[in-house]
Amino acid sequence: MPFLDVFKGGNHLPLFRALPDVGFTILTSSVRPHNAPLPPNVRVVELKARLGSYYYGFADWRFAHAVLKTYPVSHSFWKQFDILHLNQTLGPQFTCLTQTGVPVLYAVHHPVTADREVACAETSGFQTLAWRMKYFFLVRWQRYLCRTLPHVMTVSRTVQERLSSDYDIPSEKISIVSNGVDGERFTSAADREPEFDIIAVGSFLHPRKGFRYLLDTYAALTKEGVRIADVGKRSPAQRSVLENISGVTIFGTVSDTEIVSLIQRSAVLISTSLYEGFGLSLIEALACGRPAFAFDAGAVREVLTPIDPSLVVPLRDSDALVQRVQEFLALPLPARMEEGRRYRTQVLERYSLVASARALRAVYERISSTPYPSSTGGGECVCL
Asked: What's the pTM value of the predicted model, to 2 decimals?
């Protein structure tokens, strides 16, 4: 992977930790932050390569070029692994890794066609044209990788169906390994009034995250005295707007430990994302006994409906989101806590980290030419 932020669960570190008998090597250009602890079964090989920005600098293409320049397909580096796991990277050159003779697994967390679709729908004129240009190569590279590589993996049936449709590949080629939540880390909070009524988590820099709908929701709720914790990366312009909304506490980017604490100290999590391949923060909040109200976008319905259909809010309907939040906050604290216990039980039954780890192991075993890995084995996987 081009960049490794050890405080972001999307990089699969919790999932790797849940397979302690499998050794993982993460090949990356940079690690953030450098002093953060890694699981004992994970090592990092860091390339000294400056890749530039994601969209304009084509970081994925440059990353693939740097990797293959350092470790050509004939290099012995690749032979030490049982699986080559490409984690959401878009460098088209990586298709040549099939020449190593080691099985290659391509993981797609969400299709970039969805990112492009939302960005274009949320803008107009020159901005729309700019977004189309930004995704011109990214869509083609992801399509090429999905079509060329023999094994594809994603996180939900919704994404599986979209990849199959957008890139014209058989759905049977795409394995599903759902995201999982660690119930020992994301635990229920004490039965007391939370410090915050609402928490929103994530980077809202891309139009896909629905920042303008988040602002509408914040504005309506703070008029009623609702206390809001705003967590994640924001642009200077976004931060300036948030600073003018009374009742919003801006935390910015926080550590892995802090995010758990903030969810526990909040009553409700909201998501205004306009497309989610899964929605990891949703199940993290549910595991903490907190409802997660989210727009009906991407896989949100697939993930939340079996737990509670009322958590799914009509897409782009900020008024409905506000109403659902207000209805929950109006419940007596004992009733809210009882609902929270039910959410925690159900989410851990459906989306446990252990179950996700077993599903990943099953994919590795299926695509590997040798038994891999046994319960006492020492399988090795490289994740790019």
From this structure: 0.93
CA distances from 284 to 9, 45, 287 (A): 10, 29, 5
What pairing do the DSSP bridges indicate for beta strands 174-176 and 151-154?
A: parallel
| 3-state SS assignment for residue 43 | strand
pLDDT in tens, 94-115: 999 999 999 999 999 989 999 9
Span 311-370, pLDDT tens digits: 999 999 999 999 999 999 999 999 999 999 999 999 999 999 999 999 999 999 999 865
CA distance 208 to 206: 5
- Indicate if 200 and 341 belong to the same structural domain: yes
Q: Is residue 191 part of a domain?
A: no
Same domain, 210 and 176: no
Handedness of CA 149, 81, 89, 362 (dihedral sign): positive
Residues 293 and 159 in one domain: no
Residue 238 domain flag = yes
Cβ–Cβ < 8 Å for 217, 272: yes
Gap between the Cα atoms of 289 and 273, Å rounded: 21
Are 169 and 77 within one domain? yes
Smallest CA-to-CA distance from 298 within 131, 123, 112, 133 is with 112
What does R_g of the chain's alpha carbons equal in angstroms?
Answer: 21
pLDDT the model gives residue 372: 46
> Are the beta carbons of 288 and 268 closer than 8 angstroms?
no
Residue 206 forms part of a structural domain: yes
Number of domains in the chain: 2
Residue 264 lies in a domain: yes
Reported as a single tens digit per residue, the pLDDT across 61-75 is 999 999 999 999 999
Nearest to 81 by CA among 380, 383, 384: 380
Boundaries of domain holding 203: 196-350
The CATH number linked to 321 is 3.40.50.2000
Pure H helices in the chain:
13-17, 59-70, 112-121, 125-134, 136-148, 157-167, 211-222, 236-243, 256-264, 280-287, 300-304, 318-329, 333-350, 353-367
